[in-house]
């Protein structure tokens, strides 16, 4: 599909929308949702997901922990009978939020009504994410420790004691 509405890749929409106030997203959706019949392709769910990885030495699996997961898969049907699907899976325990983002996904993916307004919110959230990433990178850079001096200091102390 030729997407003219949103320049941000689809895989980043949810991350970006999570950084925008939910009230702004709801306001955009509320302004156009009456044009569509919304149905669920599957029941929205929330629960815990388990993160598993492998030990690098013994190559045995172990669990890092649990994370909250919410999913939703919706279909929007317009007055002409055209159906547009959208889905969302996010690290959150709010299935209503997942459903809201699934509707956003359907609107953005299919260039439906209010797509440009949602695309603006996605771009605002993406800008916010990049700004936070730069701040984190600067904080990480400022906390860098040079351990090479630590070894030299210990050797000098040993030489001073032996003399």
Can you walk me through this structure?
This protein is of the alpha+beta class and 163 residues long. The protein has one domain. The protein is 46% helix and 26% strand. It contains five helices and three strands, in the order ααβββααα. The protein has a three-stranded antiparallel sheet with strand order 1-2-3. A hairpin with a 5-residue loop joins β2 and β3. α2 packs across α3. It is elongated. The termini are far apart. The model has no long low-confidence stretch (mean pLDDT 89).
Keyphrases for this structure?
elongated, 26% strand, alpha+beta, 46% helix, three-stranded antiparallel β-sheet, 5 helices, 163 residues
The end-to-end distance, rounded to whole angstroms, is 78 Å
Strand/helix succession: HHEEEHHH
**Mean of residue pLDDT values:** 89
Helix content: 40-55%
How many separate domains?
Answer: 1
Summary of the model, kept short:
Helix content is 46%, strand content 26%. By secondary structure, the protein is an alpha+beta fold. The protein has one domain (10-162).
Describe how the helices and strands are arranged.
Layout: H1 13-18, H2 22-32, E1 37-54, E2 61-77, E3 83-90, H3 95-109, H4 115-142, H5 148-162
Antiparallel strand pairs: 1-2, 2-3
Helix pairs in contact: 2-3
């Amino acid at each position: 599909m030729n997407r003219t509405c949103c320049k941000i890749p689809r895989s980043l929409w949810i991350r970006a929308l999570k950084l925008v106030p939910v009230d702004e997203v709801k306001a955009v959706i509320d302004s156009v949702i009456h044009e569509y019949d919304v149905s669920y392709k599957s029941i929205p769910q929330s629960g815990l997901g388990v993160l598993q990885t492998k030990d690098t030495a013994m190559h045995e699996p172990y669990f890092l922990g649990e994370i909250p997961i919410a999913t939703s898969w919706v279909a929007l049907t317009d007055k002409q009978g055209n159906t547009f699907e959208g889905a969302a899976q996010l690290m959150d325990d709010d299935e209503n939020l997942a459903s809201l983002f699934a509707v956003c996904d359907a609107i953005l993916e299919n260039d439906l009504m209010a797509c440009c307004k949602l695309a603006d919110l996605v771009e605002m959230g993406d800008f916010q994410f990049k700004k936070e990433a730069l701040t984190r990178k600067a904080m990480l850079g400022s906390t860098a420790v040079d351990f090479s001096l630590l070894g030299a200091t210990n050797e000098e102390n040993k030489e001073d004691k032996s003399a």
